[in-house]
Amino acid sequence: MPVRPKLKSISVLRRPAEVVLIGRPYELTHLADEDGAVTTLLQVLAQGSRTVAELPTAMRERGFDVTEEEMAAAVEALDQAGVLLRADGDADLDDATLRRHASNLRFYDLYSDLRRTSAGFHRAMATADVLLLGAGGMGSGVLQSLIGLGVGRIRLVDCDVVEEKNLARQFAYGHADVGRNKVDAARDWAARYSPGTTVVDTVHERVSDADTVRRLGAGASLVVSAIDSPDDIQLIVNEACFDLGVPFVTAGLLYSTIFYWSVEPGVSPCRLCLELNREDQGATMPHLAEQTVAVSGEFVNRATGPVAQLLAGFVTLEAARYLTRTDPPVAAATYHTFDLVDGMRTTVDAWPRHPGCPLCHRSPEA
Ligand SMILES: [Zn+2]
Fold it and tell me: Which of 115, 187, 202, 298 is the most exposed place for a label (fewest CB within 10 A)?
C-alpha cells in the first residue's frame, strides 16, 4: 500500500517569504516560500489523506502547477527535516492500545518518519524483557515508569521487605504493605495499576555475584541495576552483562548529586574501563592515594521522593533509548550528573576505553 505522508502535529510559522517548521525544540527548518506553494503543500500534507502521486492534483486544485517528481522531492526533503510521518502509522494497533498508549505514541512521533513508525517504537517496547535489579527507591520508580511505557516483561529482583521509612519515596508501596516482600507488593501494584500490560516475574533474592545476574538475566533485552550493595555491584553487573551481551543502565545519589550512566558491552567503553582509568590517575596522583579517612560518618539515605523519581526517570529514559532506539543512548560510558543543591548544576563526562580492559579487549568490536 502506497505511503500517505502526513505533516506531524508541529508548529509552522508563516513569515514574509518563508515558513519556519519547528519539528523538535532544536530543529528549526526555514523554507523559502515566495508564492505560498510551500504553505499550501504543508496544508495538504497536514490532512495526511494523499499519496505522493495524488499531491499534484491537490496542488493544482489550489492554483499551483507542479509535477509528481517535484512533489516526491519535496516530500523527501520534508522527511529529511523530520516533520513527516506515515498517516497510517498507528493503523495496525488495536483500539485499547491506541487509548492506553496515546501519549507514548505521540512522544514517539518526535522520532518517527516515513520509514520508522511510532507503532514500531511501541512494539519494540512491548516485546522487551527487562531484568530490574532492586525494587527500592530507584527500582520501584523504574518499575512504574517501564509499566507506564508498556514494556512487555520485567523480571524484578529484590530481597527486602517494605519498611515505613520507604514510604517517603517508594510510591509503589503503601502502609498496608509494610512487612511484605517488596517484590510481592510491587507485583500487586502492577496488577492493580495496569493489568495485562506487563508480565512481572518476581524473584526474592539478594544479588551479590555475577553468576546470579547471568542466571536471572538470560534472554533479557536490558538490565537496570537499581541496587547499591555490595560495593562492587556495578562491576559485577558489568561483567555479567558482557556475558549476556545486553546493555545496562544505573544511577545513584551522592550527597545532593544525582548521577546516571550506562554501558553497551562491545560498543561503548565499560564500567571496568572507568575503574582502570581511575587506577591510572591514582598512580599519577600519590597525594590522593595516600589519603586516609579521618572521620567516617554512619551511612544515611538522603533520597527524598522527588530525588528518587528523578533518578528513576533518567534511568528509564536511557533504558527506553536502548529498547526502542529512538535516539542513541546518551549515557553510554558517560557520567551525567545533576546537583540538586548548588543551583541544579549539570555535568556530562564521557570516559574512554582502557587499553588494558580484559572485558572490552575480548569483544569483537574493541
Ligand atoms: Zn572495558
Answer: 298
Task: Say yes or no: do domains 5-86 and 127-362 share a fold.
Answer: no
Whether the CB-CB separation of 187 and 202 falls below 8 Å is answered with: yes
> What is the whole-number distance in angstroms between the Cα of residue 214 and the centre of ligand 1?
18
Q: Long-range pairs for 162-168 at CB < 8 Å and ≥24 separation?
A: 166/136, 166/137, 168/304, 168/305
pLDDT averaged over every residue in the chain: 94
Expressed in angstroms and rounded, the spacing between residue 225 Cα and the centre of ligand 1 is 18
The dihedral formed by the CA atoms of 211, 212, 215 and 217, expressed in degrees to the nearest 10: -110
62, pLDDT greater than 50: yes
| CA of 360 relative to ligand 1 center, distance in Å | 4
CATH pick for 5-86 out of 3.30.420, 3.90.930, 3.30.70, 2.60.40? 3.90.930
Tell me, what's the pLDDT at 203? 97
Boundaries of every domain in the chain = 5-86, 127-362
Phi then psi dihedrals of residue 308, to 5 deg: -60, -35
The domain over range 127-362 is classified in CATH as 3.40.605.10: no
CA pair distance 143, 183, nearest whole angstrom: 11
User: What gap in Å lies between CA 111 and CA 47, rounded to an integer?
Assistant: 20
* Distance in Å, CA 318 to ligand 1 centroid: 20
Distance 268 CA to ligand 1 centre (A): 8
DSSP assignment of 170-205, as one string? -TT--GGGTTSBHHHHHHHHHHHHSTTT-EEEEEE-
Q: What is the pLDDT of residues 275-325, one digit of tens each?
A: 999 998 876 655 545 567 788 778 788 899 999 999 999 999 999 999 999
Q: What is the pTM of this model?
A: 0.93
Q: Is the pLDDT of residue 1 over 90?
A: no
Span 139-149, pLDDT tens digits: 999 999 999 99
Q: How far is the CA of 271 from the centre of ligand 1 (A)?
A: 6
Please report which confidence band the pLDDT of residue 366 belongs to, taking 50, 70 and 90 as the band edges. Answer: very low
